[in-house]
Structures are given as structure tokens and as C-alpha cells.
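Dear support,

I submitted the protein below through the web form. The confirmation email said the job was done, but the results page showed an empty box. After a refresh the structure appeared. I'm attaching both so you can tell me whether what I see now is the final result or a partial one.
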Amino acid sequence: MSIVNKKEEYFIKETRSEVVNLNPKLEAANISDKNLSSYEYLNSFIKKRAELYGGYKSFGEWLKATYANDRRRFIEFEHLLKNKSILDFNATNGGFLRLASSVANKTAAVKYTPYLDNDFEQMGIDIFRSIDSIDEHFDVITLFNIIENIPSAEDILQKLASKLKRGGLILIETQNEHDALLEYYESKSFEAFINMNCRSKLFNIKSLNTMLRKAHLKPLSIRQIQKFPFSNHLHWLLTNRPDGHKKWGLIDKIFPSYIYQSILKKYNTCDTLISVVSV
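What the results page shows now:
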């Protein structure tokens, strides 16, 4: 397999099969293979995620806090969402779907718990309690920062792919195993933070491609982006804490984010991978 960099996007050309081992240090402990895609595991993870990221005074405050990231994703994929039906797997607070509804024909979410059901309904988002309960097909299915938390990602992706319309796409965003904080700076505090957030296994460009092909899917493209600026990384290295971009944002005016991102891209150490996938 060869990967060609074209306009900052990695297009995959299949020349031979290749299996890439994932980093065993980042595998979540005490998760049995036989329960990898179980309701219990997903339910537990989603509840924990809500505790980690949903601790805001109001739902509106939570939407405001995630707006920048939701808007980035919406702008990234808007051309693929227009007049389409969209299903988001584990939609957290529904912020992305709220924006997508402005151009989409239909928005829906797979939610394993009743948490925020009323808020989703008020935003016009249909709810499915499991993949098996989905009785229709969608043009686009999205998975944002979730496949790295499910040890049986191939199983989940295969089930979701069966819910795609002909010619439909799966859009994936996931943490990069070669994130500079892990690969280059070797930040132990950041690694602990990653593990605390229920990460099961992280992917790099090659291993993500391998996993998708094991799921009998066709990755049309895999590329990397850098969500967090230099101030965030510097804050991790000096204080062992997150949110440096919120506290030390002045640094990013001195060392602009686009420059830092271009450097990280050169060494494949951006924090996020984005893939467009077909069946």
C-alpha cells in the first residue's frame, strides 16, 4: 500500500495488503473481546463521556462550548450533506446535526441512552436506540471521535454500512496515534488523559486504512488536521493540563496555528485523522 500526499490529502492506492499493529500501550484495560460491541460497553462509555464533557450549567452552554468544533465539521463536509439524509452515531449533544439540518433533508442519531432525548427532539433530530432498530437507509453516516473508543470498530462499521443508501458515504474523524504530544513530545500526562477518556485503540493513517478494509469498506481518502494550536501543546508540556489554547491564546498570535499545523503535517503528527469512506 502506498500513500500519496496530494493537496494535503492522503489518497490511498492499494498495491498490496498490509497489517499494521496498533500501539499496545494505548489499549484500554480490562475489556473482553467477546463484549467489544455490546450494549453494555457502549452504554458505559457514553455515560462516562457525558460526565466528562457534559458538565455544563445548561444544554445551551454545552452547545456553545462545542460550537467551534461542530461548525468546523459542518464546513468541512457541507458539500456532502446538502439535500441528504444524515445519521450520526453517538451524537453527543447533537451540535453538528443542529447545524447540518440547515442543508440536509433529514437528521437522525443513534443514542444508546435517553440522555438529552428531549433536547434532540426539539432540534428535530430523530433518535434510534440502537443500530438494529434503524428501519431506513441514509445518504451519510458520521462517526466523530468514537471509533477509537470501541474495540470492535469493524463490527460497528459493518452494521452501519448496511444502513447506507446506494452510493452513500461514511465520514470518520478520530484521534491520530501519531499525535505530536504522544509521538514527538512523549507527554505522559496527555497519554494518561487519552486513556482516562476511555480510548481503546488509536489509529494512524496506515492502521485506519487497514481497519476500514477489514470491515470491507473502501476508504476514499484519509487526511490529517490539527485541531489544537501550539499554545495547547505548550500548556500540556509545562503544566500537564489541557485547555492551554483557552488560557494562553496570545501565544498563537506570535506563532500562528497554520504554521504549526503545516509543520506537524510534514511529520504526520497532527492530532486528528479524517476519512471519507464508501461501501
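Response: this is the final, complete result; the empty box was a page-load delay. The beta strands are 2-6, 9-13, 85-89, 106-110, 126-128, 138-144, 164-175, 218-225, 272-278.
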